[in-house]
Design goal:
The protein has helices spanning 12-24, 39-45, 51-59, 84-92, 116-119, 163-178, 194-207, 220-229, 241-254, 293-305, 310-325, 343-353; strands at residues 2-8, 31-34, 62-67, 97-103, 123-129, 141-144, 153-156, 183-188, 214-219, 236-239, 262-266, 272-276, 328-329, 339-340. The protein has 354 residues and is α/β, with parallel strands linked by helices.
């Protein structure tokens, strides 16, 4: 099983090292090949997604990704910035379905920004469409205006979805719901946006093939409020690229820390890219403070979805739970009475729990 390992920037190499250590403990026939991406890719080849890195990702069975981004590159043209690497990988590999689970471990209920009784037992899945919407729609750009405001600049982006794109992400959500509590909430802004009106119509059509799954609809602004007010009302949320980006980050804070949430980005055949949903955290990079659990749990998702090793995935997830029950915490999830540890020590603890 060939895994492309793309550590990226900031804390990326530190957290990837811990996930890789855990995977190597499983005694599976895994072959790891590492390559630069993001700012590291720009430094190595003048491109955030070097051709060799993209080719490696295409030929691998799965991609284990750290994080990209660094303020040092903010003045580069957009195409050369580190963040273009992940956008490029999603587009080039056809990774249209982003699965972002948000589960509150009982041991971390006190670490949530919300009251424990509001989040205790929370287990939701956000299914985010990943290759369409305003992030990829054209035309886009910045231009000078004409007429009465001649010389003034305006920025513009295009929100875009076609029926095929909506239909396939809806199927992913309905199939996921069948393995959970059989409830899907489709989130849009159909009262304002034409794109969202099409989204709602197509999702309703697709729901007819899943009569055993309950479908509801919610406007994105209300959903943002309900995630804070009563998050346990949701099971599976399906939404577009931009709304999903925002809502999944909001949901991450319900769990206590963005450092706890993994993600999978899948193509039509189940091949995927797996990454923690957090960023590069340049302020703590190299200090051994980062939480590697989201990356380790992303590796577990890789085992389950792309490598077809569900038992190994469960072993890793149970090991993480065992470590949390033992009272070990990195700084981002530390609570009174817990034992504070660093990146490597947390990784070692998961390996020992295996």
């Amino acid at each position: 099983m060939k895994i492309a390992v793309l550590p990226g920037d900031g804390i990326g190499p530190e957290i990837i090292a811990q996930a890789r250590k855990v995977l190597q403990k499983l005694d599976l026939p895994l072959e790891f090949t590492e390559a630069p991406v993001g700012g590291a890719g720009y430094e190595a080849a003048g491109d955030p997604l070097p051709a060799a890195t993209l080719q490696l990702a295409r030929t691998a069975d799965a991609v284990l990704f750290g994080a990209v981004g660094d303020p040092r590159y903010d003045k580069l043209e957009r195409a050369k910035r580190p963040e273009q690497a992940i956008l490029g990988l999603r587009k080039e590999l056809g990774l249209f379905a982003n699965l972002r689970p948000a589960r509150v471990h009982p041991e971390l209920a006190e670490a949530s920004a919300l009251k424990p009784e509001v989040v205790s037992g929370l287990d939701i899945l956000i299914v985010r469409e990943l290759t369409g919407d305003i992030y990829f729609g054209k035309p886009r750009g910045i231009r000078k205006m004409s007429g009465s405001r001649e010389g003034e600049r305006e920025g513009f982006d295009t929100m875009h979805y076609n029926e095929t794109e909506i239909r396939r992400i809806a199927r992913v959500a309905f199939e996921a719901a069948r393995k959970r509590s059989k409830r899907v909430c489709s989130v849009d802004k159909a009262n304002v946006l034409e794109t969202s009106q099409l989204w709602r119509e197509v999702v309703q059509q697709e729901a007819k093939s899943y009569g055993d799954v309950e479908l509801t609809h919610m406007y994105v602004d209300n959903c943002a409020m309900q995630l804070v007010r009563n998050p346990k009302q949701f099971d599976v949320i399906v939404t577009g690229n931009m709304f999903g980006d925002i809502l999944s980050d909001e949901a991450s804070m319900l769990t206590g820390s963005i450092g706890m949430l993994p993600s999978a980005s899948l193509d039509e055949h189940g091949k995927g890219l797996y990454e923690p949903i957090h960023g590069t955290a340049p302020d703590i990079a190299g200090k051994g403070l980062a939480n590697p659990l989201a990356t380790i749990l992303s590796a577990a998702m890789m085992l389950r979805y792309s490598l077809r090793q569900p038992q190994a995935a469960e072993r890793v997830e149970h090991a993480v739970t065992k470590v949390l029950k033992s009272g070990l915490r990195t700084a981002d999830i530390h609570t009174p009475g817990a034992r504070r540890v660093g990146t490597q020590e947390m990784g070692d603890a998961v390996v020992a729990a295996l």
